[in-house]
Amino acid sequence: MDGTKRKNIQVGQVVRIVQKQHQSSGELTEGIVSRILTNASQHPHGIKVKLDSGEVGRVKEILNEDLDELDWDAL
Predict the structure, then answer these.
(1) Which of 8, 17, 23, 37 has CB 3.0 to 4.6 Å from 48, enough for a Cys bridge?
(2) What are the structural domains, with CATH classification, of the chain?
């Protein structure tokens, strides 16, 4: 699902984000959305969210449909 559209993201969803300090490497962090920070309906680099862990980044992948791919130990 497309992480650039706010309507596709909900609190409680499992997503992969890229944090600002990892933009150059593209390293992704998995977590559960606790808050949606972007007010706009879309953003070309991904909607900015805060995870339950406190990490902030832009959504690159929405994983709710692909529960088998999750790294449950990292959550």
Answers:
(1) 37
(2) 6-66 (2.30.30)
